[in-house]
Amino acid sequence: MAEAITLSSGYRMPIIGLGVWRMESKSIRDLILSAISIGYRHFDCAADYQNEAEVGEALAETFRTGLVKRDDVFITTKLWNSDHGHVLEACKDSLKKLQLDYLDLYLVHFPVATKHTGVGTTASALGEDGVLDIDTTISLETTWHAMEDLVSMGLVRSIGISNYDIFLTRDCLAYSKIKPSVNQIETHPYFQRESLVKFCQKHGICVTAHTPIGGAAANAEWFGTISCLDDPVIKTLAEKYNKTAAQVILRWGTQRNTVVIPKTSKIDRLHENFKVFDFTISDEDMEKIKGIDRKYRTNQPAKFWGIDLYA
Prior knowledge:
Radius of gyration: 19 Å
Helix content: 25-40%
Oligomer: single chain
Distance between the termini: 40 Å
Largest sheet: 8 strands, parallel
Shape: globular
């Protein structure tokens, strides 16, 4: 079993999870069953991934067969941009698809509200100018208070944010009654974001690293990016510790006290990514990894939205 981090809500979140973004629907069942057998207990979903129903089927099967109990697993999903004005309905839609009666963690997927296209549709509607149709009438504060209501209603145990910078995170801390438990962001050795990570941790917000190995093949395909998997420093350390490059990178992530959610569709990689607790990277080698930061983002939705929201 993976180690866990205690969130500000009091609940524990396993520090390694499996992300299900861009997983093919037909392979989800086998991947989730295999992951659970290996020891994974944390699954990172989102309405936008359009596969909550398949994940729900797989989870229901594991509960039915007694492989795990509901309380043994930690399930995250996310509110899509187009549903900021329909938080309760969106949450209930996700719960229904996932066949759950509560979520362990519900995140605001991006700090932007966009044109509502119907609950569960998660479209990114573009205007006539080919640019994302951003809704300027719903504040993130309004959205957050609706997220807090889900906790009072018992639908969600912990709530958090995703892709928020320091400014927005600070603002959320100021207006929240229930503090965000998590900020899920892209961070890896080429995009270390030390200031943001430290800010969140200082204020009791756990950082979850999506794209924790820098996007590898998936982001190279969609965004034409390069991954730190091939970095000479990482390769040298992998040899030194007799581990793979991915294992060194994931271990670095956990040693920064971030939660890592690598995505893979290969069973052997599921095993590999989970075997990161039997070694420790020395302080000196952690410093070496600190030296390869390129401030390099690989996940760039501007490709689909016609606007760079990080500009």
